Amino acid sequence: MQADAALHEDDGAPPPHWIPVRPRLVVASAFMLFLELALIRWTGSNIVHLSYFTNFVLLGSFLGIGLGFLRVGRSKRQPYYSPILLAVLVLVVSFFPVVVNRETDGILYFTSLSTSGPPAWLILPVIFVTAALVLMGPAELVGRCFPELPRLEAYRYDLIGSLIGIGLFTLLSFLSAPPLVWGLVAAVAYGVLLRPKTAVAHFGLVIAPSVLVVTALALETFTAGALWSPYYKVTETKFERDGVPIMRIDVNGIPHQEAIPAARRLEWEPQYGTPYDRAATKTLDDVLIVGAGSGTDVAIALAKGAKRVDAVEIDPKLRELGGSFHPDRPYQDPRVTTHINDGRAFLERTDKKYDLILFALPDSLTLVSGASSLRLESYLFTEQAMRSAQEHLKPGGAFAMYNYYREIWLMDRLAATAQAAFGHKPCVDVVGWGQQAVITAGLTAADQTCAGEWGGASADTPPPTSDDRPFLYLHDTSIPMLYLVALGLILLVSLLAVRAVAGPFRTMRPYADLFLLGVGFLLLETKNVTGFALLFGTTWLVNAIVFGGVLVAVLAAVEVTRRFRTPSLPVMYGVILAGLAIGWLVPNSWLLSLPVPLRLVTAVVIAFLPIFAANVVFAKRFAETENGTLAFGANLLGAMVGGCLEYLALVVGYNALLIVAGILYLGAFALLPRAARGTVTV
């Protein structure tokens, strides 16, 4: 092939690689996925603004991967820029992290003076562009292997490598490995894949940047006193207040919670005892606490006389810190059973009923008026979640939740959600600063004792959130202007970057259908991640399984296309649309009613059928393209656009994304070259 020959010309071309093409492709693909996941995780732990842009680095990664493929054949130099730019990114984030100023009582006003570090308008573009350029290097290494192999064989090894990369990062997350380990993996990968001609060049272009990365991450690992859970960078600070030992826990630079003796917490903030006062029942045989954290709420329940407490905490490190430090030692009490799980998932799986269910400040981020119009979805605060809590109450039981809501409409929205779920007005006690409120709802109105009647929702109160639109902190059914501006700039930068790297857009015109296939694919992947989070829990393991499952479905499609006679493309497009229709028609409520094993099988079939069919379409088209790297690059850039379109869920809900995906696949079929419509691959 011409592209292959160009890579081996003598004038400045790199020498033949010391690793054969197939294992090299696997290693490069594994590194590409591993580096993408590591950057998403690490930057989000140090730049608090990224907590409000759930797929910002992912979009940059997709752009970089697409550009890397488009760059193949246009340059003969190896991508030495990648380790250098990775070092620059790590040093910038290490020296200029964005953290919350504790002196403002933990209130985070987005991009305001209560945060220390660069403002969002400066640090976010730097991270986006640099992440794209860093990922462009491994993608270019992957893309250079494609011309040396048959199309589908190259795609097959790329998928195998991607699965290995996801598996490795998942394993390290399970082991709570710190960023130092991630940096060592990256350094080894660069050393294996990049082979400059001279020792001097190897040191300056590969070894020196890798040493800087490893050193910076080692300093963070050993000096910051941080623990790395599967979700957060967790730091703890021990101090005394009025002679009382306290441990404050910060996650990703945000004040999160404090481990305080139950007696002092009730003395300093008596509202923590309000749920026990508002619940008419005085029987506390069984208590469920969702968001048990470091154990203070568990200790309060025990102090109030609970005989059995189920403490649900999603983060194992927070539970570990509470078990080792909390002055009351609640987790050592034989009355307490700990469950490391997502709160909604626990409610959906347990058959146990409780006298009192508490949602004890289960938010992962500090809430504020400046950020309350931003996206922080959670399936724990929907009407369906509160109905699930109601179903797990004993006769006479009560449900309560409390937090610092800081917005009247937010507090009223949650109270209205409880009213919709329980069928009567809840008790609402507003105390302290920041609209701290305790919302308590008895199984019936007679099962609660309110100090006064809640005034009800106002005209400004948005409706309750649902499992389809779980965006609690979005006041309106719209995409906030901050997101629109950011996504618009992302698309503009992407267009300019693609034009600069790949040349005129007309070169990708023959692959417009593959571009739309990429857009639809990422929409389906997003829908699956959110859907499985609802069905099985918003945990890191569930997300890893979904990402891995998507790649397995893609790999299965490639293997079927390589080994068997498959139907024509129009038939496969019909299968895609049928799969999307099934997914749209089957309600989540029905899936949640199924036993977990049957729910898993049914959800997998519904979720992965259209993905499998779409990738059979892609594999058949990809096998016959004239320029494999250009076609694959167009598909990856489409995936990046799909990441932007995913924000349509804020307006139409997650289920309607299936309709959007259907329109995209119809568009891809309309753009399908006429010669490819009747082909059958053997």
Quick rundown:
The protein is of the alpha/beta class and 682 residues long. 54% of the residues lie in helices and 11% in strands. The chain has a seven-stranded mixed beta sheet with strand order 9-8-7-10-11-13-12, with helices on both faces.
What keywords describe this structure?
682 residues, alpha/beta, four-stranded antiparallel β-sheet, globular
Number of continuous helical runs = 24
Q: Which class do the helix and strand fractions yield?
A: alpha/beta
Uncertain regions spanning at least 5 consecutive residues: 1-13, 104-111
- The overall pLDDT, averaged over residues, is 87
Oligomer classification:
single chain
As laid out across the biggest beta sheet, the strand order is 9-8-7-10-11-13-12
Helix content: 40-55%
Which percent band covers the strand fraction? Answer: 5-15%
State the shape: globular
Q: Mind telling me the C-alpha Rg? A: 26 Å
Distance between the termini: 23 Å
Tally the beta strands. 13
Describe the largest sheet.
7 strands, mixed
